[in-house]
Amino acid sequence: MSRIPLPEVDVQRQQTPGGVERVRLRSAAAALTSLSALAAISLASGPAVAANPSVPCALPRTKAHHSLGLDTWNAAYPRPLRTLNAVMVFLSFPDSKPATTPKDLAADYFPATSRFFDQASYGKFRLNADPQQHWVRMPAASTSYRIQRDWDPDQRTRYLQDAIHAADPTTDFSKYDIVYLVADPDAPGVDSDATKVVNFDRPVRADGRDINRVVTVFEHHPPDRNVLAHETGHVFDLPDLYHRPQDGKNGDWDTYVGDWDVMGSQFGTAPDLFGWQKWKLGWLDRQEVACVTGDGTSRLTLEPLSASPAKAGAAGKRLAVARTAEDRAIVIEVRDSGGLDRASCKQGLLVYRVQSGSASGGGPVEVLDAHPGTDACWERSVYPPLADAPVALGETFTVPGEGMKIEAEGRTKSGAWTVKISH
C-alpha cells in the first residue's frame, strides 16, 4: 500500500584547507563540481552535546546512522527546540511548461507540515516555511538528469549543482536552516520515488551559513500524505523505521512499526512520533519518563502521548522505559485517537523495543504485537498485523524473550492509563 522513498543519500566532496568550503553561492557551481554521491554511507558521528545525562534508561548514542541513543545530541543536526526557517525553491525545466504554480505546490506541504510538528512537539518547535513565489529555471532538460529511485551519483551531483547555482541569484541562503528543492512534478523526467534527503559529508558554506543537507522533492501534485514531515524528520537526525528488503524492491516494508510513527510510513493511520523519538528531540522532559529498574512489580500512571502538557500536568508520565541491555530498551506509551493519531485503528499501551546500535532502516524500533494472531483495519492500515498491536484495557502482555509482563489495569477519570509491570 505505501510508497517508500529510498533512504537518504550521503554526498562526499573535496575540501579546501581547513575542512570547510567557504564560498558564496555566487560561485556555487565551482563549489559543487567536486561532488560525488555515495548511497547508504553514514555521516561522521559529529560532535556530541549533552542531552540526557545521568538518566539510567537513556541509551547511549552510537556510531549507527541516526542512532536513537539519548545520552548526547549529534550537533551535526539542528535540534528542533526553537523556530527553524525553511526555504522552498521551485525548479522548472526547459523541456516542460509547469502546469501548476509555486503557490499551489507550497500549499501541498504548508501549513500542514508545520502543523504536524507543532502538534508532535507540544508547541516546543515551530517550522517556519518561506516558499518562493517564482520558478527557478534549471539549465538542462528534466530527462537529462535521469532522475529515479536508484539515481546515478554523477547525475544527482549535476542536478544539485545546477539547482543551487540557478537558485543563487534570488535566494539568500543565510536566512534559512532547511532547504527544500522542489521539482516541477509534471516535467517528463521527474520521478516521485526519488524524493529524499541528501547529506553532504562536509558543509557547503553559502552566504555565511553552512548547508549540511538539502531535501530534494519530486512528489506528484498533490503529494503523498505526510511525506515532507517524514523527510524533514531526517533533518533532525531521525531514522527510517521501515524495513528495507535486501534487494530494495521485493518484500513488505512495514513489518517493523506498521502504522505507528511517520518515520515508518507517511501513510500510517497513527503517524505521531514515538515517545522515544520525542524524548530524543527534547519534546518530552526527563520528568515525563519513568525508568523501570530491578526485579519485582511496578505500578505507574501514563498519560496519552497525544495529551497536551497542560492536561498531563507537571508530574505526568508519558513513557515507561525498561533497559534490557547496553543499547536496548523496552518502551511503553499510551496511544489513543487524539491529536495526530485521530485515524488510529486501535488504542492502548503500545510496547516497542529500541536499539540504539541499529542504523536507519535497520530496525532501530520494533513494535511488539500484543495480538500476534489477529489483524485489523485491512481497508486503511499499511500493515494490518500491527494495527492492533497495543495492549487493550484489562489485557496482559508478556514481552517475548524478556520475562516482562505488562498489564493495562485501568483508566483514571482524566483519561490516563494505570499500568502494572512485572519482571
Q: Quick gist of this model?
A:
The chain has 423 residues and is of the alpha/beta class. The protein has 8 helices and 19 strands.
Question: Layout of helices and strands, plus pairs?
Answer:
Blueprint: E1 9-12, E2 21-22, H1 28-32, E3 36-39, E4 48-50, E5 72-74, E6 83-92, H2 102-109, H3 112-120, E7 126-137, H4 153-167, E8 178-183, E9 196-206, E10 209-217, H5 227-235, H6 275-281, E11 289-291, E12 297-302, H7 309-312, E13 319-325, E14 328-335, E15 348-355, E16 365-368, H8 384-387, E17 396-399, E18 404-411, E19 417-422
Parallel strand pairs: 1-9, 2-9, 6-7, 6-8, 8-10, 11-13
Antiparallel strand pairs: 1-3, 4-5, 9-10, 12-19, 13-14, 14-15, 15-16, 17-18, 18-19
User: For this entry, what is the oligomeric state of its chains?
Assistant: single chain
Structural class category: alpha/beta
Q: How many helical elements?
A: 8
- Anisotropy-based shape: elongated
Largest sheet: 8 strands, mixed
Mean pLDDT comes to 88
Strand residue percentage: 25-35%
Strand tally is 19
The SSE order reads EEHEEEEHHEHEEEHHEEHEEEEHEEE
Give the low-pLDDT segments.
13-44
Q: Kindly state the percentage of residues in helix.
A: 10-25%
Rg over CA atoms: 22 Å
Straight-line distance between termini: 38 Å
What does this structure look like?
- With 423 residues, this protein is of the alpha/beta class.
- Strands 1, 2, 3, 6, 7, 8, 9 and 10 form an 8-stranded mixed sheet that branches. The chain has a 5-stranded mixed sheet with strand order 11-13-14-15-16, with no helix packed on it.
- It is built from 8 helices and 19 strands.
- The relative contact order is 0.15.
- The protein is 14% helix and 28% strand.
